[in-house]
Design goal:
Number of strands: 15
CATH class: Mainly Beta
Oligomer: single chain
CATH topology: Beta-clip-like
Structural class: alpha+beta
Strand content: 25-35%
Number of domains: 1
Length: 216
């Protein structure tokens, strides 16, 4: 096992992904805390344990900041096993997963999120968002013990699912002033809020590509 500085490792992995390197969701090395140091082992998960913790929330469990997190700061890569569209559909029909649990990464693939990433809850007034493929960043300053949440609608745009099963929707109980009560996919987000997410850089790459394609 190798002792490494967590922030350096995170920056390295992030740069590898952005440059098309070999680190992909589902083949991350697991980061574990050991005696005050950060260690690597060969498991297929990355866990930035120093940034957040899992604790009880009004929605069951949620992820809460362990330390101040600044706007624009990297929080974690949301890791898990990559599955095909067909596998995601099958697992949902078999009631092995909830429809809002997997993270869509392209039109034909999802990440079946593992713990602790599956515990990030939705908010209509989020303090974080997903960019790139599965990178969670802060879009506001986040205080210690504040729950970290992102807008689920900002990461969903599955036309094939809509054609076969109808639109995805989820009742929202975030109780924010701007709560939409019922959320759907990216196209259901108010136009002004969509633009805000794009400006903040928290729209996944596959959705950005679809938006560009639609304008061509």
């Amino acid at each position: 096992m190798i002792s490494l500085d967590l922030k350096i490792l995170e920056i390295f992995i992030r740069s590898e992904i952005l440059s098309g390197g070999s680190f992909e969701a589902g083949i991350f090395l697991k980061i574990v805390e050991h005696g005050g140091e950060i260690w690597m082992d060969d498991r297929k998960l990355i866990k930035t344990a120093s940034k957040f913790k899992v604790a009880n929330s009004r929605f069951g469990k949620g992820c809460f900041a362990n330390e101040p997190i600044k706007k624009g700061e990297f929080i974690c890569f949301c890791g898990g096993k990559e599955i095909t569209w067909e596998e995601q559909e099958r697992r949902y029909i078999e009631e092995k997963i909830r429809l809002d649990d997997p993270l869509q990464i392209i039109e034909t693939k999802y990440i079946e999120l593992e713990k602790p990433y599956i515990y990030f809850n939705h908010s209509c007034n989020p303090n974080s968002g997903i960019r790139g493929k599965n990178e969670l960043i802060a879009i506001k300053n986040i205080n210690p013990d504040e729950e970290i949440a992102y807008d689920y609608s900002s990461v969903v745009w599955d036309e094939r699912w809509v054609e076969k099963h109808g639109p995805w929707t989820m009742n929202c109980g975030c109780k924010e002033k701007n709560c939409r009560k019922v959320i759907g996919d990216f196209l259901t987000i108010p136009v002004s809020l969509r633009s805000k997410y794009i400006m903040l850089g928290v729209v996944p790459d596959f959705i950005l590509r679809k938006l560009i394609k639609e304008k061509e």
